[in-house]
Amino acid sequence: MSYAQTYAQWQADPTGFWEALAEDIHWYKRWDTVLDDSQAPIYRWFKGGVTNTCYNALDRHVENGRADQLALVYDSPVTNSQQTFTYRELRDEVAKLAGVIRSLGVEKGDRVIIYMPMVPEAVMAMLACARIGAIHSVVFGGFAAKELATRIDDALPKLIMSASCGIEPTRIVEYKPLLDDAIDMAEHKVERTLILQRDQHGCDCIAERDVDWGDAMAAAEPVDCVPVQATDPCYILYTSGTTGQPKGIVRDTGGHMVALKYSMKTVYGVEPGEVYWAASDVGWVVGHSYIVYAPLLHGCTSIMYEGKPVGTPDAGAFWRVIEEHKVNVLFTAPTAFRAIKREDPQGELVKNYDLSAFRGLFFAGERCDPDTLHWGEDKLGVPVIDHWWQTETGWAICANPVGIETLPVKAGSTTVPMPGYDVQILDPNGQPLPANEIGAVCVKLPLPPSALPTLWQRDDLYKAKYLNHYPGYYSTADAGFKDEDGYLHIMARTDDIINVAGHRLSTGAMEEVLASHVDVAECAVLGVNDELKGEIPIGLLVLNAGVTRDHADIAAEVVQMVRERIGPVAAFKKATVVKRLPKTRSGKILRGTIKRIADNTPWDMPATIDDPTILDEMAEAVATLGYGKGSS
Ligand code: COA
Ligand code: AMP
């Protein structure tokens, strides 16, 4: 069947389409209703169904002939070590770990925060929660204590699972002091933590609160999977919103599994038993969906890589992993390939490796520039596919459906909507726009399985942030257009979110930090184009009257504050002082115009500017940071 026929089949009978796919999942009890729309615009998939994610990801395969197949391969150039787990071994470890967390008081429905580096125990922690119906919330290791504290206060976890350290190529990241600070800062008092001591760097523990992971595992009894409702949350994943308050994206249990399993073949063309590698981090949605859940639900071998595309030890690291583990498909962010291309522009290192098993490269997380796409095609000789999705959806909204039919690749486009998504480009009045006109990219409700049913404990905020702008639609906050062939082109965000090395960050949250500096009267943070990371944030500061301190000192202080409050992942390293900021008559800072000046892209004089010299001042300011007329 062609893509067009499959999409038409879904359109003709959306619930029947997903109901048939739900047969690929094990259910203790089938659903009563495929799609419950009684609370629309909040929808629930497979209501009344009873299932378990861990059973489907592990036990089911052990019982059905995959017990001795590798489930997880951990490859860690930063520790110079590797570890493998068959499905049976992983199931046994997870069952014991589930016993540990239950012995620490965690039951079905309780929340568990996982703040861990890229070690197999992080995957086990997620699956152990799923095994007993606890709701995990993984927090990326590059976030600071304050961000962790915010998530603790929203999720109200019973337990935090963490480790002594993470390992970045140039430094050890001590997790424990960050964890201790976060627990101190949070209002919700976490009573128990489970701490994995890593050989590379240990940590001190607080006797009555911190439990040693290794000791607890040695004494643990395995526990069985606990049946949960299809509509029960499997996890919460916080993602940047337009303020410092992150949004708790809820992923349900049943719909999540049905869609992810479907995506493995449809989006990535992968069969059970094949080797799948998502070079991301378990702290991001890509890691949740494609390091952990989808490959395991599909019976694949998943690669977990604790390293970087370059520097661990060189720009051939990815090719080494592909050769060594016979990777069939790689999924990463374009920024990783820009890093490789920068160090090895001719792709000389590719030639040192046998990539014969490798058949497809998938990019997502940020806009894919055509140069990077073509470089991948040329050097690797495989299709390079850009696809577009969000933390909110958990799987691709638009992709090239290679498992159904490979459509012609158009660089700059994320191809076509997946079955389940009716993507429309709307004007500000909510009217569909014709081909090639840019507008708000929206998805007609209901969203397909796996997409968020709501925000954690905040139906009101879910409606306000996503549904109220265009009634009947989910607003993606991306702007883009469909071309004459129906291909989607994602061009920009319509809010203050920027994508830094494929990581989603809010400039509004950074502005909140800058504005809290005692000498800062007002400020603007904008994402400017960056050759490696796609975008990076820069800050412009207006100081309080009478401040006579050295401007460079103040700039350095705000840089440090962002690192301490949001985390190194924000990559906020540049700020400068200006006399004033350009604004609209209603007082909104013209960030878009400043960004265009910094990016050296054409811009029109805004009608609200009475004194054009203010824009010369902006050009001078960004030039001091190496942008605009100051850039090469
Ligand atoms: N724990 C603690 N700190 C972390 C971290 C973690 N898990 N991950 C990143 N950091 C730190 C880095 O050490 C760096 O700190 P620094 O300012 O002291 O140098 C900072 O956060 C920024 O990290 P990053 O954006 O990853 O930049 P980088 O220069 O270290 O590496 C790339 C750049 C492009 C190589 C890297 O971002 C990459 O491989 N990205 C592609 C894959 C990916 O992660 N995609 C995400 C979604 S698919
Ligand atoms: P995240 O929730 O971190 O996955 O970030 C989602 C956002 O990243 C989207 O809303 C887009 O703005 C951007 N994004 C993700 N994938 C792509 C892509 N393939 N092309 C363009 N932008 C993308």
Textual characterization of the structure:
By secondary structure, the chain is an alpha/beta fold. It folds into two domains: 3-307 and 387-480, ANL, N-terminal domain (Rossmann fold); 501-630, 2-Layer Sandwich (GMP Synthetase, Chain A, domain 3). The strands form ten sheets. Strands 5-4-17-16-18-19-20 form a seven-stranded mixed beta sheet, sandwiched between helices. Helix 6 crosses helix 7. The chain binds coenzyme A (COA) and adenosine monophosphate. Coenzyme A (COA) is lined by residues 141-142, 166, 168, 173, 279-281, 284, 286, 308-310, 332-333, 335-336, 339, 365, 501-503, 568-569, 571.
* Total number of strands: 31
End-to-end Cα distance: 50 Å
Q: Which structural class is indicated by helix and strand composition?
A: alpha/beta
Q: Main beta sheet, described?
A: 7 strands, mixed
CATH homologous superfamily label of the largest domain: ANL, N-terminal domain
**Overall 3D form:** globular
The protein's oligomeric status is single chain
Number of helices: 18
Strand content: 15-25%
Q: Say which molecules are bound, naming each kind only once.
A: coenzyme A, adenosine monophosphate
Report Rg: 24 Å
Strand order of the largest sheet: 5-4-17-16-18-19-20
Stretches with pLDDT under 50, minimum 5 residues: none
CATH architecture of the largest domain: 3-Layer(aba) Sandwich
* CATH C-level label of the largest domain: Alpha Beta
What is CATH's topology name of the largest domain? Rossmann fold
Q: Helix amount, in percent?
A: 25-40%
Number of domains: 2
Mean pLDDT: 96
